Amino acid sequence: MMMRMLFPEGKMKALTFSYDDGVEQDIRLMEIFNKNGLKGTFNINGEFMEQAEFTYPEGTIGRRMGYKLAKETYGGELGKNHEVAVHSYTHPFLTRVPRPIANYEITKDREVLESVFGRVIRGCAYPMGPFDDMTVEVLRNNGIAYARTTQSTINFSIPTDWLRMPPSIYHKDPRFMDLVENFVNGQPGIWDTAWFFCIWGHAYEFDADNNWELMETACEKLGGRDDIWYATNIEIYDYVEAFNRLHFSVKGKVVYNPSAIPVWFEYADVTCCVQPGETKTFR
Ligand SMILES: [Zn+2]
Fold this sequence. Notes:
The chain is of the alpha/beta class. It is built from eight helices and 14 strands. The two termini are 12 Å apart.
């Protein structure tokens, strides 16, 4: 029987962004996202939330936000559709520190972000990028659902190992705009799964490289399309997990959705939706 997961409303494409370090330029990036109806995830180091604000020497480009501005930005109107996620407390190479310190880096960051923003935080991006079996175990023990790496796939495959989650592309990659065009203009073929597109980077890079127009152009192309699901990383994770948790009978004729979200899939060329708590029978 032919079957594949679809995104909400039967869409074949999902788009998300993952931007790191909690810098002041996230404000401008969020404004671009909001203008185009896009959603993203911002990965933040809690150490900088311990101070109300910072003053930086003139010319400093990577300016992390203190508590006041961060709360106003991610916790206010501007950030209400976006996700805040763990990026470790002090931004070390997690693979180089002893396990108890790696553990503290994650627990502490999660605790600080949860107390500042009053939300449950379950996402993560690895600081600097490196990860190993120890760090994955530490994240799992801390209730982290997914952790974004820096190992881009340069395609639209849906992650399967979510604690080693690869993004699709870094916006500084020379292939970036081509991949954006492919995502907007292409369609998954019958051999493909639904498409997942995750763009990552740091918002201060647009100041450093003086190329905000790159992101503005990409977001305008990507936004306002009814065939794309615009979502945060945790929303996509939760959705894929809800699909994976559907209970199918062995012949695939009966399906039960034990989750709290409607789940869509293609079944023998027909688009189906199973509501939360619903049992559906196919002929
Ligand atoms: Zn970082």
